[in-house]
TrEMBL record:
Keywords: Membrane, Transmembrane, Transmembrane helix. Residues 1-181 form the Major facilitator superfamily (MFS) profile domain. It is a multi-pass membrane protein. This is MFS transporter.
Length: 190
């Protein structure tokens, strides 16, 4: 089903963004002279911010559509990665990770719900299992791809490639949203 594939892509790109940050932020920090303890603090801020967004999920879901939250999650994560790559200074990185962490925390639970809701009840468990499989495949492939990219193009390139994956996810979700709105308009006028 097209919706499931789209939500699997969003889920995989958000999840692997967390992995990329965890694995490559210390390398980026080291390359610009940021102490490991400071990088640990940045990752902790990201984790706390993700937790806070999950606590706010119910309020956010009442105020915004699922699609809008998914797009915000993906684009907020992408902006975080761009910010830490372009402005690798401790203060800007802490701010980017606090904001980006909030958006990272939204993506995973939303895509799980989106997969479950987009499938008929008998197919939900299989759909969620497929989503988890997609996440595991992405988590296996990402370190291999990231290592190859970093070896050729340098540390910042891995963040930029991840941003491209997030941008594709956002574009796919926005395209589906527009098609859905157009279909609704045709059904109301037809």
């Amino acid at each position: 089903m097209p919706n499931v594939a789209r939500y699997m892509m969003v889920s995989a790109t958000v999840l692997t963004s967390v992995d990329i940050l965890t694995a490559y932020l210390p390398v980026l920090g080291s390359s610009v002279g940021i102490a490991p303890v400071m990088i640990g603090g940045m990752l902790a801020v990201r984790g706390v911010s993700s937790t806070l967004s999950r606590l706010a999920a119910r309020r956010l879901a009442r105020r915004f559509s699922q699609s809008a939250l998914i797009v915000a999650s993906v684009l907020g994560t992408a902006l975080c990665l761009v910010a830490i790559t372009v402005f690798p200074a401790p203060v800007s990185m802490f701010v980017a990770l606090a904001v980006g962490g909030f958006f990272l925390g939204i993506g995973q639970p939303l895509t799980m719900t989106a997969v479950a809701v987009s499938l008929p009840a008998p197919a939900r468990s299989s759909g969620l299992a497929l989503r988890l499989l997609g996440n595991r495949v992405a988590q296996t492939a990402t370190p291999l791809i990231a290592g190859a990219i970093t070896a050729v193009f340098g540390i910042a390139s891995v963040f930029i490639v991840q941003v491209l994956g997030l941008a594709v996810s956002a574009a796919w979700e926005l395209g589906a949203r527009r098609r859905s709105a157009a279909d609704s308009g045709e059904n109301q006028t037809g």
